[in-house]
Amino acid sequence: MIDDERPVLDNHLHLDPDNHRGIDAVRDFVRVDGTHMLVVNKPSWHLGVEADAGEDFRPVFERTLEIVADASAELPGRAWPVLGVHPGLISRLVDERGYAPEEAREIMRGGIDVAAEYVESGEALALKSGRPHYAVDDDVWSASNAVMRRAFERGADLDCAVQLHAEGGEDLTEVTEWAEEAGLPAHRVVKHYAGGRLEGPIPSVIGEKDELERAAERGEPFLMETDYIDDPDRPGAVLGPKTVPRRVAWLLENGYDDAVRNAHVETPKRVYGIDTESTLERA
User: With 60 as the cut, is the pLDDT of residue 21 above it?
Assistant: First the structure.
């Protein structure tokens, strides 16, 4: 059982507003003492949008804001939106829709610019970008890195965090060096779906016990996530919405109180500037 005064944040999950569990997943999270979540927009094509320009992403972002508002109404804390362009879109644009990598780059950078408008207005908390976690041609890789660098530039302009979807590994210092060159501090860069040891970005550690133990024992800033995808075609993919609260309870049972505070209070404040304690009002 988690203390009523303790925030529990899932740093990266998706909610489908129309086709799967949506708010029911939020209610599951609350039932096991979850309090806060960062909701990342689903890939644009999953919401029926085949983008040809940056403006085409706007309905994806608007729909995400709606489901986040609905989620906040259910949570004892609140939800925040993270908006951006899934890096896998470049393969869809190039391989399936016939765009040149340079054209795909411009479409995706346009999407980042539109997402940044929502951060600037205060409607979204952070940006999402990255690069493919699978092998691609050199020109696609170069275009993907250019999209990610645009996200760093906009994050620097707005003093907001950037969540990255990228390849695995334990050293992404080159990426945070690019962010710092753009004026975005390394602690504002978050690697989603990370292991417990990562150099460079702040790791958002997937809710597996061994990786969480590594992060807890390391003592560096980290976050916790499920990457719940809320996809009716892949019901068992990644982790369910109850996972982070259950892993918090497990960490507390094993004496990792400081690590829990690190992941759910201190690191969210450092990375995003959010206060998970003052925004918590349990009934």
Answer: yes
